[in-house]
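Deliverable D4.2, example record:
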Amino acid sequence: MTKDYLLDDRDLLAQIARRDEQAFRMIYDKYAKRVFLFSMRVLNSEELAEEVMQEAMLKIWLLGAELLKINNFEAYLKRLTRNRSLDVLSRMELELVTSQIQGKNWAEIDNSTEEEIILRDTRKVLQSGIDALPPQQNLVYRLYHQDGLKYEEIAEKLGLSPATVQTHMKLAMRFLRKYVSRHTDITALLIIFKLL
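Output generated by the structure prediction step:
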């Protein structure tokens, strides 16, 4: 890697720290596919690798002035991607173990009516959380999850940058996870995180 290459990334990171969306787009275009492919090797899932890539890129945008402290951006991004991918694997393992335990319990006592009630109540909690989102986050969330639009399509429709759409989605998901965790028990939480 040449010195000019490093300086180029550092210049872009300095611009991103000042909230330059064009500089962010350049870093995104340069590294997003690498992050996706690295995560894909760990997770073996395009959907999860896409999620990791989006979260990694969002973190870069949100770091602000902290970006100026990064000496080797490529190494930082690789470590960030690896850690986030391992977090996802841990979450998947926990969900699998929990669903196996609950599956045994639910099989022993046939309570399908109770499951339906929990699912219905969980959906109500999620819907009230969606309704409580700030207007722009609410709109982005609905366009993505209910209308099935991609970030680029939402950005074009709303006249925003894809990075801004991504930020709104990340904030919406964070809010919904907190909202749901405050308004439901552990069983409902597991169901709702699958819905999210």
